[in-house]
Design a protein that fits this description.
The chain is of the alpha/beta class. It has 13 helices and 8 strands. It is globular, with a radius of gyration of 20 Å. It binds nicotinamide-adenine-dinucleotide. Nicotinamide-adenine-dinucleotide binds next to helix 4, strand 6, helix 5 and helix 9.
């Protein structure tokens, strides 16, 4: 018998090639007249294009967004928002840029209009992150959830193949953990399974033909579903491990997700047979963990922690940190279990097939 709680996220989504043309109209809809545009230094040009599109509705471009929102950059952006009397932020970019807009919203209540250009999914979540003194703090706050999101797949065409692959796997990771979340519910599970399906069928085309707009659109659709999954239900071991590896060992965000996902999935497989069946079904594979590993390989994405900068000598410390502070996971988290998982991920081993998978129709 069904019994669940479902908190729907209040955001407006406009999806489709060319929807960027609605930018000025959507800013007006927010009741804003002074937009501060945010980008990374690498995407300055895209930021400048937004300023141009907004005309007199833009008050400037702050182009210093970087990974993990260092507090110094957040403070500089907050100062700029105050100085320019901005009444909204337009974030064009990946999770780093959206994260910077959230850092501003957290102290000012400015509404955010997000224009995602990767598959990270931050635009659909009320989760913020700030890094201070080498430590990344995260939290949930309804004020940081973007009010409007413009998903225009034409902006993702410039994403390099490697980032497309790893960012797509990052989004699949949100879907995977949503399927066995403590607060999982049938609606989000449906979205999460569909997200995996859309990404698994589109990413192989995207990495071979980066300008194939149909597949880019399909991948962005999957990424949206991944973002909703991440924003709506709680995550578990996989996200905790990636947070530890990124925060304490400075490993790249999307690549870390790509490498760890098959192993975290294998770790939880026996405890979550129904989720495993749904993941495998969406991948068109016989096993969830193996299917995820094989997808990463087929995309030419990294599959070993060693290949993305982790040092063998740090694995013990990583296991210690990840086993501290209890958190929800469908299978008990033990220090030895995590240490073994990390060794497999470090070496890039293909996970072993798991025996128990429920049949889901
Ligand atoms: P990113 O935003 O750091 O982007 C990586 C690089 O790719 C940057 O140089 C960026 O300018 C460039 N780039 C982005 N889109 C491009 C495009 N279309 N074409 C060319 N270059 C492009 O990477 P990300 O993986 O999207 O975000 C990672 C960050 O987001 C991490 O800090 C992570 O913790 C955070 N994140 C937060 C949430 C959340 O809900 N709060 C969710 C997911 C990720």
């Amino acid at each position: 018998m069904l019994s669940f709680t479902y908190d729907m996220l209040p955001s407006r989504v406009i999806f489709g090639a060319g929807c960027l043309d609605k930018l000025a109209e959507e800013i007006e809809r927010l009741g804003a007249t002074r937009a501060l545009v945010l980008s990374t230094p690498e995407q300055r040009e895209q930021g400048a294009e937004m300023v141009k599109r907004l005309g007199s509705r833009a008050v400037g471009l702050f182009d210093r967004a970087v990974m993990h929102v260092p507090i110094e950059i957040a403070e500089a952006a907050r100062d700029e928002a105050r100085r320019s009397a901005a009444d909204c932020c337009v974030a064009v970019g990946g999770g780093s840029t959206t994260g910077l807009a959230k850092a501003i919203a957290l102290v000012s209540d400015l509404p955010i209009l997000a224009i995602p250009t990767t598959y990270a999914g931050s635009e659909m979540t009320p989760i913020w992150g700030l890094t201070e003194g080498g430590l990344k703090k995260t939290g949930r706050d309804a004020r940081v959830l973007p009010k409007t999101v413009l998903y225009d797949p034409t902006l993702t065409v410039s994403m390099p193949a490697r980032l497309s692959a790893t960012s797509g796997m990052n989004s699949i990771a949100h879907c995977v953990e949503a399927l066995y979340a403590r607060d999982a519910n049938p609606i989000v599970s449906m979205l999460a399974e569909e997200g995996i399906r859309a990404l698994a069928r589109s990413l192989p085309v995207v990495v071979k033909e980066p300008s194939n707009l149909e597949s880019r659109s399909d991948a962005l659709y999957g990424a949206w579903l991944g973002g909703v999954s991440l924003g709506t239900v709680g995550m578990a071991l996989h996200h905790k491990l990636c947070h530890t590896l990124g925060g304490s060992f400075n490993l790249p965000h999307a690549e870390t997700h790509t490498v760890v996902l098959p192993h975290a999935t294998a770790y939880n497989a026996a405890a979550t047979p129904e989720a495993m069946s749904r993941i495998a079904r969406a991948l068109g594979a016989t096993s969830a963990a193996e299917g995820l590993f094989d997808l990463a390989v087929s995309l030419g994405a990294p599959v070993s922690l060693g290949a993305i900068g982790m040092k063998a000598g740090d694995l013990d410390k990583a296991a210690d940190i990840a086993a501290q502070n209890p958190y929800y996971n469908p299978r008990a988290v033990t220090r030895d279990g995590i240490r073994a998982l990390l060794q497999n991920a470090f070496e890039g081993r293909r996970p072993q097939a798991q025996a128990s998978q429920a049949v889901v129709r």
